[in-house]
């Protein structure tokens, strides 16, 4: 079969949104932790002034972690390859959480493909290989049609 290429990249905008959301969470938690003078009641759980300050501080720290993850996702999205390649011998797949490593997997090493629907009209393809599972989101393709074409072409080559 002929080699085929599919436009693929992680969304910088979504990754940046994650970092911004984390920054807002961090700033809000930090502000309330520094200016807290009263207790806090959350669904019947009463926290005194010190406990509420600790709660806000933890919220701020979690926000910092979300900022770090979001910025790392932005960096990875900018560095990732622009396309998935179906060659005569195999397919190049991004592996790992940050998707900086691309692995060429022969069609014989692909054990199964499963497509799952997620909220928002999007899909995730789980490609089970002898190296592990690679998950590809339809949001990383140009549109759902490109995603479906990729999954169909890959299935035919197995």
Q: Rough shape?
A: elongated
In N-to-C order, the SSE pattern is: EHEEHEEEEEEH
Secondary-structure-based class equals alpha+beta
Approximate strand percentage? 25-35%
CATH uppermost class of the largest domain:
Mainly Beta
Domain tally: 2
Radius of gyration: 21 Å
**Major sheet summary line:** 3 strands, antiparallel
User: Distance between termini?
Assistant: 11 Å
Low-confidence regions: none
Average pLDDT score = 87
Q: Strand order of the main beta sheet, please?
A: 7-8-9
Give an overview of the whole structure.
The chain folds into two domains: 12-79; 82-157, PH-domain like, CATH 2.30.29. 44% of the residues lie in helices and 31% in strands. The protein has helices at residues 12-35, 49-79, 144-157, and strands spanning 4-7, 40-42, 45-47, 83-86, 90-95, 101-106, 110-118, 122-129, 132-137. The protein contains three helices and nine strands. The strands form four sheets. It has a three-stranded antiparallel beta sheet, with helices on one face. The chain has 158 residues and is an alpha+beta fold. The relative contact order is 0.16.
């Amino acid at each position: 079969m002929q080699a085929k290429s599919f436009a693929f990249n992680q969304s910088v905008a979504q990754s940046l949104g994650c970092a911004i959301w984390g920054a807002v969470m961090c700033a809000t938690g930090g502000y309330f932790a520094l200016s807290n003078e009263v207790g806090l009641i959350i669904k019947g759980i009463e926290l005194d002034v010190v406990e509420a300050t600790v709660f806000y501080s933890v919220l701020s720290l979690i926000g910092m972690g979300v900022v770090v993850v979001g910025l790392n996702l932005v960096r990875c999205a900018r560095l990732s390859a622009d396309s998935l390649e179906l060659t005569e011998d195999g397919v190049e797949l991004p592996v790992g959480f940050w998707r900086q490593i691309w692995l060429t997997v022969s069609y014989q090493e692909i054990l199964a493909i499963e497509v799952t629907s997620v909220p928002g009209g999007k899909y995730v393809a789980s490609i089970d290989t002898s190296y592990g599972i690679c998950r590809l989101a339809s949001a990383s393709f140009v549109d759902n049609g490109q995603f479906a074409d990729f999954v169909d072409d890959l299935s035919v080559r197995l």
